């Protein structure tokens, strides 16, 4: 896949000697010669296959062809026209594009020159993303230079990096910014791709809040240098919870969380996100399995995952029955016998029976995807607001110990 450097061409201050030059100090301590356009210096350092230079109608396009390289009389007519257009801030794309082959030859790299809007409105910002997508192929390795350009463009280019990763499966090697220091006249160069890792962790947290899958953190922990058994435990826990095996998920998740308490990770972003993740996974600290299932049901309801909310809540009722009757949760046969006995005995308690049957029928309907023809189940399934209210009422009954009640077991 191609390695492409995408750089912004702004317009630095200018006097009678030309555009202001700056010495750029790279992270390894190397100091560049005084240059007005950092993108050219970065290109010489990174040696990309392609150099894409983006600038507005008022960027210093003339500098590309007049100062850093000597073109002699080549393209002289186009260069003069370009200089005049720069003064008027009226450069259109055919002007620099006609000179791009000369630049490619002199710099020994495939150069593309594109005019971009000023990106002041959402429409113009969207246009920039489309231009970037046009210049990046599937799977390309990308470096972004945000040194020159308006102050809002670095923020937009960070968004662009995320967009290119999703739209083009691009790998972002670096995000570069040379920060001019007016006191020294030099500019320390910062590599900002670490911000993308922060965004990846935040995306994983957002995904977890949306669907409850904390397995998305496994590859991030791997990249951060987490021990393999921590990552494996997290993956296994996510798998077991995904199939509603709360018992197995608990054991694996506790292993992972114990390691997360004092992570030795090469990822400062993990220190910000992992405490939040641990808070989200606090259900694992509940002592009894039915309490864990209740917490998971409530979390599922909060993110409108009605299928899981119903399934967890129903399982919490059956698990609570086992606890009250002293039946082993893992013994399916005993568990089923107890459920059947409870369903017989709960007939003596009409209110509890009505709640239980509503929950059981909801569970059957969402599990099988069939449509009820009448009753409270139909009302709940055909109206989201009613479904939320129904599940909230059932949850409160289970949390209060009213469903199932100890009396139904004691009298049995």
Number of helices: 18
What is the structural class? alpha/beta
Return the CATH architecture of the largest domain.
3-Layer(aba) Sandwich
Show unreliable segments: none
Element order: H for helix, E for strand: EEEEHEHHHEHEHEEHHHHHHHHHHHH
The CATH class of the largest domain is identified as: Alpha Beta
Give the beta-strand count: 9
The coarse overall form would be elongated
Largest sheet: 7 strands, mixed
Output mean pLDDT: 90
CATH superfamily of the largest domain: SSO1389-like
Cα Rg:
31 Å
Question: Roughly what fraction of the amino acids lie in strands?
Answer: 5-15%
Q: What spatial order of strands do you see in the largest sheet?
A: 4-9-8-7-1-5-6
CATH fold annotation of the largest domain: Rossmann fold
Report, as a whole number of angstroms, the end-to-end distance: 70 Å
Number of domains: 3
Kindly state the percentage of residues in helix. Answer: 55-70%
Q: How would you portray this structure in words?
A:
With 412 residues, the chain is α/β, with parallel strands linked by helices. The chain has 3 domains: 3-192, Rossmann fold (3-Layer(aba) Sandwich), CATH 3.40.50.10640; 198-285; 301-410, no CATH class. It is built from 18 helices and 9 strands. The strands form 2 sheets. The chain has a 7-stranded mixed β-sheet, sandwiched between helices. Strands 2-3 form a two-stranded antiparallel ribbon. Helix 9 packs antiparallel against helix 10 (246-260), helix 12 (289-302) runs antiparallel to helix 13 and helix 13 packs across helix 15. It is elongated and about 100 Å long.
């Amino acid at each position: 896949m191609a390695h492409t450097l995408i750089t912004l061409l702004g317009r630095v201050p200018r006097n009678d000697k030309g555009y202001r030059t700056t010495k750029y100090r790279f992270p390894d301590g190397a100091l560049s010669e005084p240059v007005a356009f950092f993108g050219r210096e970065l290109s010489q350092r990174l040696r990309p296959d392609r150099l894409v230079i983006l600038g507005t109608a008022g960027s210093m396009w003339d500098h590309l062809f007049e100062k850093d390289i000597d073109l002699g009389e080549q393209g002289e007519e186009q260069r003069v026209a370009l200089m005049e257009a720069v003064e008027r801030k009226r450069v259109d794309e055919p002007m620099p594009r006609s000179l791009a082959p000369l630049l490619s030859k002199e710099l020994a790299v495939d150069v593309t020159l594109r005019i971009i809007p000023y990106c002041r409105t959402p429409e113009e910002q969207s246009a920039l993303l489309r231009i970037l997508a046009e210049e990046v192929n599937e799977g390309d390795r990308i470096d972004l230079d945000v040194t020159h350009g308006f102050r809002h463009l670095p923020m937009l280019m960070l968004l662009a990096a995320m967009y290119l990763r999703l739209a083009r499966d691009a790998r972002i090697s670096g995000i570069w910014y040379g920060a001019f220091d007016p006191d020294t006249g030099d500019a320390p160069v910062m590599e900002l791709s670490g911000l993308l890792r922060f965004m990846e962790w935040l995306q994983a947290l957002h995904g977890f809040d949306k669907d409850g899958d904390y397995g998305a953190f496994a590859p991030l922990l791997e990249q951060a240098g987490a021990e393999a058994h921590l990552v494996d435990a997290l993956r296994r826990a996510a798998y077991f919870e995904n199939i509603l095996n709360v018992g197995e998920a608990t054991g694996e998740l506790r292993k992972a969380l114990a390691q997360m308490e004092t992570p030795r990770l090469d990822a400062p972003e993990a220190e910000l996100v992992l405490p939040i993740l641990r808070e989200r996974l606090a259900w694992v600290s509940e002592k009894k399995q039915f309490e864990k299932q209740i917490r998971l049901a409530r979390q599922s309801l909060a993110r409108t995952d009605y299928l899981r909310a119903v399934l967890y809540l129903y399982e919490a009722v059956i698990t609570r029955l086992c606890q009250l009757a002293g039946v082993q949760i893992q013994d399916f046969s005993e568990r089923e016998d107890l459920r059947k006995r409870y369903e017989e005995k709960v007939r003596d308690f009409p209110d509890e029976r009505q709640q239980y049957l509503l929950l059981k029928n909801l569970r059957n309907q969402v599990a099988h995807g069939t449509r009820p023809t009448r009753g409270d189940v139909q009302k709940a399934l055909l109206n989201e607001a009613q479904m939320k209210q129904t599940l909230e009422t059932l949850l409160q009954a289970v949390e209060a110990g009213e469903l199932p009640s100890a009396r139904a077991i004691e009298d049995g």
